[in-house]
Amino acid sequence: MAASLHFNSVRTTPCAKGFRRSSFSIKSTRLEFSSSVSSATGFLCARIERACRRVTKINCERGTLSVIEKDETANGSPDGNFGQLTCVMKFGGSSVASAERMREVADLILSFPEERPIIVLSAMGKTTNKLLQAGEKAVSCGVSHASEIDELSFIKDLHFKTADELGVERSVISAHLDELEQLLKGIAMMKELTLRTKDYLVSFGECMSTRIFTAYMNKIGAKARQYDAFEIGFITTDDFTNADILEATYPAVAKRLHGDWMSDPAIPVVTGFLGKGWKSCAVTTLGRGGSDLTATTIGKALGLREIQVWKDVDGVLTCDPNIYSRAKPVPYLTFDEAAELAYFGAQVLHPQSMRPAREGDIPVRVKNSYNPKAPGTLITKSRDMSEAVLTSIVLKRNVTMLDIVSTRMLGQFGFLAKVFSIFEDLGISVDVVATSEVSISLTLDPSKLWSRELIQQASELDHVVEELEKIAVVNLLQHRSIISLIGNVQRSSLILEKVFNVLRTNKVNVQMISQGASKVNISLIVNDSEAEQCVRSLHSTFFERGRVSELDSEENASTTTTTTTTSPIPATN
Ligand SMILES: Nc1ncnc2c1ncn2[C@@H]1O[C@H](COP(=O)(O)OP(=O)(O)O)[C@@H](O)[C@H]1O
Ligand SMILES: N[C@@H](CC(=O)OP(=O)(O)O)C(=O)O
Prior knowledge:
By secondary structure, this protein is of the alpha/beta class. Among the domains are: 87-304, Carbamate kinase (3-Layer(aba) Sandwich); 391-546, VC0802-like, CATH 3.30.2130. It is built from 15 helices and 21 strands. Strands 7-9-6-5-12-14-15-13 form an eight-stranded mixed beta sheet, with helices on both faces. A six-stranded antiparallel beta sheet has the order 17-18-16-19-21-20. Strand 10 (274-277) and strand 11 form a beta hairpin. Helix 3 runs parallel beside helix 5, helix 11 packs antiparallel against helix 13 (454-468) and helix 14 packs across helix 15 (528-544). The longest helix is centred in the middle third of the chain and has 25 residues, at 195-219. The radius of gyration is 27 Å and the shape is globular. Adenosine-5'-diphosphate (ADP) binds at residues 92-95, 122, 289, 311-313, 316-317, 319-322, 346-348, 392. Adenosine-5'-diphosphate (ADP) binds next to loops.
């Protein structure tokens, strides 16, 4: 093969600042180039990688090979001063689900030669779910069967196959796979899967995806360095499966990543989702989807220009595309809107992820790794709201609602205080609240209950009701949904007029309504069974039948409700 290929430099031109592109025409003496394009590409790329340390991208197309490399003469920095890190690029599980996807992600990163990014990766595809399933099975399968758990085989096959297809050594992950098997045997032996063990178990996903990807980046000549978040200063509370990032994280992470970059520049590849408990020193996780939070934490820590979260959708959409396929991308959002949307159940962003971005005032861009040309969603501190009415509709299912009516043993002030102190004592979060003088309707945050065992959940609910019944008549209503309308609440009259028209047409009774203090959210509680249809009808009214504007209605912003809550509409069972 070596003797059969020749390539001559055609031209070298500057491309993005600090980089240059060299193009070569390729001739094959023995082979028609087009018939052996992949082997020729592989061969040439390997030779170029060995020859040039600064290569960031190699493209081979129709007999022309172009190489993008760092041009150390262009910015007068032959001493290897590469400037500061510029942005975070986070890729979720769907973006790194296979070898092919990892290759595309590497290409995508290198197609922005002007950036000096920090990469945050989630576990490959559905690895986190598979790890949790493997753990559940290990509890009851017996030590001798732990090695045969289907999910373990799936995870091993996926990671070895990916390493093979990318041409990286299996050894980058084989020790982790051995340790994972040992851990499952340990769980089988103990017949117990604690929250702490669960976090350690799922951490294998991110630890392995980042190691494979880093090895691949190095193989193609883009110098990269892998980091486990729990080793570089991600300090969290010890709330296993749902830990919070502590302030000490920011300086520690900045010092480590910045220090390494300045002394020996290499693209940092960091595990998403993981941290280290400050008391236990054990591996913690930031809650499902927590890699978004890892990315924004790094963005704030290093004061970067932008945080990019790359997903499998064209940005934040007007509603969940799994509920309604005609959902459309939302071009701009504020941090408040995005936080509210995430908190009320839009899976696309982690509920806490906007906090560091807002604090650091760093724009977050949500992009599609399957469709990089799509503009995506830009999330910033403020945006032009003059045209905005409704931005997005979010559905949170399977919510528990409580109607609590005072027996008048306490005055109004004492009544509200007592009710909330019961929730505080039991450590249960409340989502949506509406009050009148002697009654409160509220929903319980399902994510806080879900982190507990089902049996524990049921007994906790009984306990809440028991405590509340000492001062009130309590009605527990399950299988409810919260429909959250994220948008310009300055136009609440217009929004509500349209909403109630839709609900009336669909013969749906709203059981509670609340306008959040954040001024970007109106929440409606309806039965689970009616919720999806409501979302679809609302979507078609607000986003498909022409733009809803203030002019559509005689109502206008002057009638805006300014109170944070409205009276509950009595619920039916
Ligand atoms: N409003 C919404 N906008 C965009 N995606 C949404 C929305 N609500 C739910 N989703 C779901 O969120 C998914 C993306 O989030 P996630 O799976 O956490 O991404 P990743 O794993 O790539 O970080 C989409 O595939 C989509 O099904
Ligand atoms: N792998 C973790 C963390 C994460 O953020 O994943 P993703 O980016 O694929 O949502 C999870 O599945 O929860």
